[in-house]
């Protein structure tokens, strides 16, 4: 008679790949957020300069070494296991999270030496089964030992004991020039036509900005630039001259004959942010104009923004990268703004080379972890810039864990959405 393996022996194996694959895009994006993505964000946060009115020395402040740790128990006794597991957060109604720290670095003008202080910016919620989670790589029997589901595949957050999922949002395909006709474009002004070209630009840290080029009734064109949710329109001829000191005739030749010119960098933070060299920005602006006039002359078809080939998905880790960069910029601005206020009131008492003073000024940095947790709990995005997103609410949903089959169907739907896009 053949020996039948025990149930315990059946569990001494990893979670089936078919199940783990359901949440793998979520987990991979969050792993990227914890590693290379966070490094890209810190590199992308611009430095801030502060000038001392008495010494006239300028000091540059920037951020380095942003690190998110692993969940630990704050009240664990000496020698006890300090690891915090998701099950404990569900039972206690707490958040499964880990500390965020960042170095504030500054340097006086003309000096090679830098100074730094480390600042803690709260606790960031951790995705279950990500590389910061202790359930990663556990076998089914080890998951059961931790009082988790044997088929736990993660991909969600635990906030105040509730399991929350970041929804995947459909966005325009990056770095592709769309030729569009929209009656809503007429509302921009009395001379605006229904034709425009659109380009969504994305940096390595996943921060993005959408630029548009509108055709006017007199045949000229204007570029639309968005600053803190407000739109500004700049004539195309003036904008292109900002990159290079050229005449109108030279600009015309570049449009008609395609001659290449190298320009100086301008509007780095608001126009074609995914390219660095001025010549590339100039040529990209010309390509938007060429496609716009081709649309007006019926030399090209209108692009269909609803076609799957023109879509991409905003993954959870990428959304958090956008939000994290916005919050870190606000933190650095808050600290340097406090220094500037102190310099206005009593400059003789301010020493920008004193680590204790800078440490005190950095206390104005707010708790980034609370901001992220609010986003996950409510699904509402709090940002002055809007992060180049078409919505400000509905980013998260409650995981339907009434039974395993409902969970499976929910994640299967997300997975099929990825394949269809």
Automatic annotation (TrEMBL):
Where is each RNA polymerase beta subunit protrusion domain found? 21-348
Its Gene Ontology cellular component terms are: DNA-directed RNA polymerase complex; nucleus; plastid
* Record InterPro entries: DNA-dir_RNA_pol_su2 (IPR015712), RNA_pol_bsu_protrusion (IPR007644), RNA_pol_Rpb2_2_sf (IPR037034)
Q: Write down the EC number.
A: 2.7.7.6
**Protein's recorded name:** DNA-directed RNA polymerase
Family membership, please give it: Belongs to the RNA polymerase beta chain family.
Predominant cellular place of this UniProt entry's protein: nucleus
Species, as recorded: Auxenochlorella protothecoides
Instruction: Tell me the compartments it is located in.
Output: Nucleus; Plastid
Class of enzymatic activity (EC top level): transferase
- What biological function has been recorded for the protein in this entry? DNA-dependent RNA polymerase catalyzes the transcription of DNA into RNA using the four ribonucleoside triphosphates as substrates.
Alphabetized UniProt keyword annotations: DNA-directed RNA polymerase, Nucleotidyltransferase, Nucleus, Transcription, Transferase
């Amino acid at each position: 008679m053949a020996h039948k393996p025990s149930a315990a022996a059946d569990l001494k194996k990893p979670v089936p790949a078919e199940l783990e694959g359901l949440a793998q895009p979520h987990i991979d994006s969050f792993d990227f957020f914890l590693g290379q993505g966070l490094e890209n964000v810190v590199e992308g946060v611009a430095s801030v300069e502060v000038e001392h009115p008495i010494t006239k020395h300028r000091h540059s402040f920037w951020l380095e070494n942003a690190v998110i740790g692993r969940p630990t128990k704050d009240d664990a006794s000496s020698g006890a296991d300090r690891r915090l597991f998701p099950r404990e957060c569900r039972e206690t109604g707490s958040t499964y999270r880990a500390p965020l720290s960042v170095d504030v670095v500054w340097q006086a003008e003309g000096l090679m030496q830098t100074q730094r202080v480390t600042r803690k910016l709260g606790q960031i919620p951790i995705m279950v089964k990500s590389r910061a989670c202790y359930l990663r790589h556990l076998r089914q029997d080890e998951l059961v030992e931790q009082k988790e589901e044997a088929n736990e595949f993660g991909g969600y957050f635990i906030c105040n004991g509730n399991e929350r999922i970041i929804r995947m949002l459909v966005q325009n395909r990056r770095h592709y020039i769309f030729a569009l006709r929209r009656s809503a474009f007429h509302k921009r002004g009395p001379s605006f036509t229904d034709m425009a070209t659109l380009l969504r630009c994305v940096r390595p840290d996943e921060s993005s900005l959408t630029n548009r080029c509108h055709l006017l009734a007199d045949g000229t064109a204007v570029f639309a630039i968005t600053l803190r949710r407000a739109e500004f329109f700049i004539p195309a001829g003036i904008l292109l001259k900002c990159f290079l000191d050229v005449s109108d005739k030279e600009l015309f030749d570049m449009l008609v004959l395609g001659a290449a010119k190298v320009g100086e960098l301008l509007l780095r933070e608001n126009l074609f942010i995914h390219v660095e060299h001025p010549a590339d920005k100039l040529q990209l602006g010309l390509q938007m104009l060429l496609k716009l006039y081709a649309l007006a002359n019926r030399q090209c078809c209108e692009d269909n923004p609803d076609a799957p080939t023109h879509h991409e998905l905003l993954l959870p880790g990428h959304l958090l990268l956008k939000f994290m960069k916005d919050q870190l910029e606000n933190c650095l601005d808050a600290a340097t703004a406090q220094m500037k206020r102190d310099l206005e009131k009593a400059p003789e008492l301010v020493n920008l080379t004193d680590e204790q003073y800078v440490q005190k000024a950095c206390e104005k940095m707010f708790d980034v972890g609370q901001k992220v947790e609010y986003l996950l709990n409510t699904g509402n995005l709090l940002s002055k810039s809007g992060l180049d997103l078409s919505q400000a609410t509905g980013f998260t949903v409650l995981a339907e864990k009434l039974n395993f089959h409902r969970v499976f169907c929910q994640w299967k739907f997300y997975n099929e959405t990825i394949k269809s896009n």
